[in-house]
Structure formats: C-alpha cells, structure tokens
Design goal:
With 529 residues, the protein is of the alpha/beta class. The chain has 3 domains: 255 residues, 3-Layer(aba) Sandwich (Rossmann fold); 40 residues, no CATH class; 96 residues, no CATH class. It is built from 11 helices and 23 strands. The strands form 5 sheets. Strands 1, 3, 4, 6, 7, 8, 9, 10, 11, 12 and 13 form an 11-stranded mixed β-sheet that branches. A 4-stranded antiparallel β-sheet has the order 14-15-20-19, with no helix packed on it. Strands 18-17-21-23 form a 4-stranded antiparallel β-sheet, with no helix packed on it. Strand 11, helix 9 and strand 12 form a beta-alpha-beta unit. Helix 9 runs parallel beside helix 10. The protein starts with 12 loop residues before the first helix and ends in an 11-residue tail after the last strand.
Length: 529
C-alpha cells in the first residue's frame, strides 16, 4: 500500500490552492460575522474547561455568543478579529450555539464531551476502510455521538486562519476515509466513558517532524542550522514551473512512444512521474505548522495522539530534541497547559536480521522513549508486535488505538487499567551475566511474561569490544531478566529488540510488549545526522 494511495479524500489540491490564493491567509472576507470551519454544526466542545470561540466581523462590531444558559459579548478589534471564552460546560447536548452581530449564525446539534487531536503521518492518516476488517468496521460505525472533522493538506510558510471542511456525524457513510487510529481510539473512549467524542484529524502522510514546527523556532536553535541551510538552498534553486514544463515534454514524448509500442503490439514504457512541489509539501520546515495546525490552534481539546517518526528515522538523534520541541510548541501555542500527548512508537518493519546490527529505526524508537522522561503528561504505545515486514502501514490499527486509549483512560479519566509497557530501569553485572530490571505495572497483569514460547527472545549482549552477539535470557522475577552468552565472558551491555524488525517476545502478562532498549550509550548510526 503506497503513501500516495492513503485517504485520498484529504489530498485536495484544488482546495489547497483555493485557500492559499484567498489573499487573507485563509480568513474569510470581513462583512458579516463569520467563524472558521473548526466551528460548525455537529461539532463537539470540550467539557469541563473554558472554550475559546473566535472569528471575524466588521471592526468595532459587537458580537454575542450564546449556548445553553450563557451569553458572552465582545467587540471586534481594529483588524476585525474577535474572540470570547465560554464558561465550562457539562457533557451532553445537543445544543444550539448562536453567534450574533449584524447577522446571526446558528450552529446546530452541538455536543459537549471529549475532544482529541489526531495527528502525524501516514499511519495516522491511514483510513478506516483500509484497516483490518475495514468493511465490517464501517458497517458497525453507528455512533451519532462521535463527531469527525479532517483538515485538508495545505503546505505553506504563511499561517492559515481557516480551512475547507466541516464536522460530520460518525456513520457508515462518513467514517471510511477518516483516520483509523483516531476513530478506534475515539470509539474506545466513547464506549468506556459514555460521553460525546470529537476527533480532529490533520495528519499528512510522509510528513517530517520539522514541518510541524514554527520556522523561526527552528532558526533560533543552532542544532537545526544544517537542516535549514539545506532547505534554504532548495528554496533558492527549486523551480516548480520549470519542472512541470520538463515533465510535460517528457509526457508528450512518452505518449508518442507508448502509441508506437501499442501499434507494434508491444508493452508500452512506464509513464514519467509528475514532479512534486517540495516547497508546498510535507517536509519543508514550518509548512504543516502554518497550513494544517495553525487554523485549529486554540480550539478546546483534551489532548493529542500522534503517529509519526518514519520520516525522521534517518535523523533519530536529532529527533531526541526535535520531537520534545514540537510537543512543547504545541502546548505553548494552545495555552491549555501541558495537555496529554500520547504517541505510537515505530512498529517492526523491513526484513528480520539473523545477526545483531545497527538500526536507525531502533534509534528513533529510543528517541521516542526518551521523550517520556523529558516532558510531563506523555505516554507511548509500543507496537513491536503489530508491524508487517513488507508494509510500512500495518493494517491492525485496532490494537494500536487500544494501547493509546489505555494511556488516556488511565491518566486522564481515572480508569484503573494498565497502560505502560515495561520499561528499562537498571542493570547489574554478575557472574558473567547481566541482570536487567524493568519498570512494570503493579498487579499480576504487570509481571513479565514471554509470548508464544517459554524461551525469551530478543536480547543481544556485548563486552568492552562493543560487538553484540545473540544472547540467552530468562525471567528471574516479576520485573527482572537474566541475560548471558557463552561467547561473552565479561559482558558490559545488553540490548533488547534493537533492530528494524526485531524478533522478540518479552511482554507483560496483560500483553503489552517490553519497550525496546539498550543499556549502553555508544554512538549510533544516526549520531551527528
């Protein structure tokens, strides 16, 4: 399954161009009172907190916003912008929200519940229709209290204030093209909590982390100087019109050769591929912050779920700082404090390796894990048991979403369920063996276990020479594993699940895989990149 085949509804080039050419960074023309598309009929407002409502009107125009038993008034500023803060609302509805100035907008069927942002790259964009049993999932998606909205893919250096889109009631007709991880996550919350759920999907396949960060924030940090210099050179030299002109010539030549081959009864040659405008794409630093994040910043949310990292695996060491920087930026911009931010660690992917070797994907997983220690209110769903060697987009999005939902239910909703995968804590060298201690969840479900076979698989071990070899291992307590190799007399380091596609089977008794780790800090293959 290719990246460019995923969730085609979101790839709306004509919409993107229309928004970018609107002349007002996506904001509607000022005359009547207007609001951006993130506010609309069928939306869900976040319960239990102040909710900001904003829009445009004539400068100085008085605007009143009414919902339930409260009315908030304000005046549009000199720039025509206005905003109000609604008092906290209890879960429920439906309500009508009215916005009155010289004209009146009536937003109907507004619910109050839990709102989550679903973001990242293609594995978050991956649609319900393409997931395991997608046809059955659509048939049963009759959840009128789950609401969905998607932000079109617009890559730009100019902050957008609006987008083309609307809230939809979740149904078999509307859920198919929505984020599978997002929907399954929201469904689990809805079924558990019994409250309305609002899901905002602004993911973009293939997107790089730096595209989700403000350009000036990156420019102010010496660590990203090289990255920005490369892009500055591209910005100076890339000519999309020229590339398109060259493509049209190649296409014309191909059409002639294809017709000739057809006339001769031969297989026609493959057509040339149209160039991509990298300046309007999902890799350019700042593009997605401006194009798909900025229009929704400030909308009341409970938190965010994130599935990204594949595009940054080759620069995993840089991701150690870049990923926390992005999360902190989002929290600062939203002005809701350290809202929950939960992500999916990279799945197992590519060919299995019979011998220990370096792995950029393992280093990216390590960078993701490090982020939990650097930022509060974060969590990670480990899925090294759910991937597919030949497909970067594993279809089992149901279990991915459940592991994310565990974090939200346990940390934000007071539900007593284990959520964290066992995590490396410490090691001790003893009698030519290394005993590793892990942090595990309390209770019998948190104890270590091996899947499928009693033999613990996935460990490697090394001496001072830094040459790792496959290791034997056995569970010696609810949170400890003993690791050794007859070929290593004085081991100093062990690694677990340290590969692109690791063969490993250590998990909690509940079934949450042990988080991949290493006890050494020797430079990896992405150090300095």
């Amino acid at each position: 399954m290719k990246l460019n085949s995923l969730n085609s509804v979101k790839v709306q080039a004509t919409i993107a161009i229309a928004v970018l050419l609107s002349g007002t960074c996506g904001a509607p023309a000022r005359a009547d009172v207007k609001v951006p598309s993130i506010f609309g009929s069928h939306m869900v407002l976040q319960q239990g907190q102040n909710n900001r409502i904003w829009g445009w009107a004539e400068p100085g125009e008085e605007v009143k916003v009414t919902i339930a038993d409260q009315t908030k008034s304000t005046k549009a500023g000199d720039d025509g912008r206005w905003n109000v803060q609604l008092d906290p609302l209890a879960a429920g509805g439906p309500h009508q929200l009215t916005i009155a100035g010289k004209n009146t907008l009536a937003l109907d069927d507004v619910l109050v519940g839990e709102v989550w942002l679903c973001s990242g790259q293609s594995n978050m964009q991956f649609a319900v229709s393409n997931a395991n049993d997608g046809d059955l999932e659509k048939l049963s998606a009759k959840y009128p209290q789950i609401r969905l909205i998607s932000v079109p893919q617009v890559g730009t250096q100019e902050p957008q204030d609006n987008f083309v889109g609307q809230w939809q009631v979740c149904s078999p007709d509307t859920v198919g093209d929505f984020s599978a991880v997002g929907f399954f996550f929201g469904r689990q919350l809805h079924q558990t909590l019994g409250v309305p759920i609002g899901l905002i999907d602004n993911s973009w396949g293939g997107s790089a982390c730096e595209a989700w960060v403000k350009r000036d924030l990156l420019a102010a940090d010496e660590r990203y100087k090289g990255l920005l210099e490369q892009w500055e050179q591209t910005e100076k030299t890339f000519d999309f019109q020229k590339a398109m002109a060259e493509f049209r010539e190649k296409r014309k030549d191909w059409e002639a050769r294809a017709q000739q081959a057809k006339d001769q009864g031969k297989q026609p040659p493959a057509p040339p591929r149209a160039p991509q405008n990298v300046l309007a794409g999902q890799h350019r630093p700042g593009n997605l912050y401006c194009g798909v994040l900025h229009p929704i910043i400030g909308y009341g949310i409970r938190g965010a779920i994130w599935y990204q990292g594949e595009a940054n695996a080759g620069r995993a060491y840089q991701y150690r700082d870049l990923f926390p920087l992005m999360i902190k930026l989002w929290r600062d911009e939203w002005k809701q404090g350290d809202f929950p931010f939960y992500w999916v660690q990279l799945a197992d992917y590519m060919a299995e390796s019979p011998e220990p070797r370096d792995s950029a994907w393992a280093e990216l997983r390590e960078a993701q894990t490090m982020t939990m220690a650097r930022l509060p209110n974060t969590g990670q769903a480990v899925i090294t048991d759910l991937g597919e060697a030949d497909d970067i987009h594993p279809r089992n999005k149901q279990d991915v979403a459940k592991r994310l939902a565990r974090w939200a239910l346990a940390k934000n909703y007071g539900v007593e369920v284990p959520c964290a995968s066992p995590l490396y804590k410490s090691m001790e060298c003893k009698d030519n063996k290394i005993v590793v201690q892990l942090e595990v969840s309390p209770g019998p479900d948190g104890a270590l276990d091996s899947f499928d076979v009693a033999e613990v698989r996935g460990f490697t071990i090394a001496a001072e020479d830094k040459k790792f070899v496959p290791a034997k291992a056995k569970i010696v307590g609810r949170d400890r594993v003993e690791v050794w190799s007859d070929d290593v007399a004085n081991p100093v380091a062990v690694r677990y699940a340290w590969a692109d596609n690791p063969v490993c089977n250590l998990r909690s008794k509940l079934g949450l895989p042990v988080t991949p780790f290493r006890t050494d800090d020797w430079p990896g293959v992405t150090a300095g990149k």
